[in-house]
Amino acid sequence: MADSTYDIVVIGSGPGGYVCAIRAAQLGFRTAVIEKRETLGGTCLNVGCIPSKALLAASEKFDEAKDHLAAFGVKVGEVSLDLPVMQGHKDKVVKANVDGVAFLFKKNKITWIKGSAAFTGPNTLAVTGADGERAVTAKHIVIATGSEVMPLPGIAIDEKRIVSSTGALTLSEVPKRLVVIGGGYIGLEMGTVWQRLGAEVTVVEFLDRVLPGMDGEVSKQMQRILQRQGMKFRLSTRVSSATASDTGVSLTLEPAKGGAAETLEADVVLVAVGRRPYTAGLALDKAGVALDEKSRVQTDGHFATNVPGIYAIGDVIAGPMLAHKAEDEGVVLAEMLAGQTGHIDYDLVPGVVYTWPEAASVGKTEEQLKAAGIAYKAGKFPFTANGRARAMNMTDGFVKILADATTDKVLGAHIIGPEAGTLIAEIVLGMEFGASAEDIGRTCHAHPTLEEAVKEAALAVAGRPIHI
Ligand SMILES: Cc1cc2nc3c(=O)[nH]c(=O)nc-3n(C[C@H](O)[C@H](O)[C@H](O)COP(=O)(O)OP(=O)(O)OC[C@H]3O[C@@H](n4cnc5c(N)ncnc54)[C@H](O)[C@@H]3O)c2cc1C
Q: Is 89 a catalytic residue?
């Protein structure tokens, strides 16, 4: 067995792992990343954020050409779909991104050890790759192994008729009827893609709302808009079985609170009920690393596990399962290992849903503030009153800013509308600096921009918006 010793070895090259490795290398650590996938970038770049956004962008163009350009006086004739070309676009985007990480590894002199890592002791790993097994030793080991699709008991994912998000990214034809189990962001995003391309989409959700965890008003509005686009919803409903045949899938639905079962037929079913931390094959017991009650690697709030020298970041630990959260944790951990200080305010990790319109959120929701008994003021501004949104024919949605009733400090913001994912950044930055609603309201915003809706919502907190 060849032997390799490093200052830092990161297991997993997703946004948590690769960013941690780059920052560690910048700080002078001799760094290696162990990745078992054929390409770098983890879930996010290979089968998550990036391919889903490539298909969302492409399907939005199709939808625009088919249904929305005529209103601008743009005639395009008959619009038809070339799905292989669209999938080719997605594949090209993924390749550019994963190759980009490989380039960054070379640039920063990070070693990619190809293979699957398993602990053999507290600071030793065995890596099994195509050319056999090798021992790897490191002063610091970072577990960044991410997450995997959460299965639904009794429903077998075959990635053909019953697919996970991974299979939903590679369908070779548009299903006539697509049933999405789960009304979270992955279900809605992938459902949106296939609906735009012609599928009849039904979302079945156990809870009584879509996008649980987001502000209630945003969830309601999102459901209304998606319904108008043709998506069907079965809320408070449980899928108790799904049986695939050569011709389709037969699902059994039951009311969440119990009651008569019914059958729903589909051509393809997408199981999108969440993700769970991935530690299979790591042999954590050999190092003595503890898991928490949700099978996540347990950390002390500063990424240290119970074993000295072993750390964990990203989807495999507590917190929102989001790429930018994993990235920030990677940077902060590398800096802490270099003796610097670091901190992440988890309240300020934005969440974005890339449907059309987009939804974006940061900080507390109204429901959370009410439950915590915090007195707040809400300022809301609809895109119907924003000149730029009118010019773009994109007037659905609103910006809502929540501020402390006494101090005016911004506590949360929730946006549904065009470019919501971009607009939220201004508010996240403001909140990082402890901004008040008045600070945002008095900041000069270019005209005519969608950002003016943010300014107006901030002014509306004090009851003085100008344009409504
Ligand atoms: C369809 C979809 C869309 C998404 N869209 C978004 C989005 O728009 N925005 C967003 O913020 N998040 C999105 N996410 C979530 C995002 O992908 C994750 O939060 C992010 O990838 C987590 O990063 P990570 O570094 O923790 O782990 P991962 O990206 O999961 O990477 C972990 C890596 O570790 C490797 N690995 C695991 N075990 C071993 C081992 N023993 N040895 C060697 N290698 C190992 C895996 O092969 C994998 O490559 C999406 C996810 C999905 C599925």
A: no
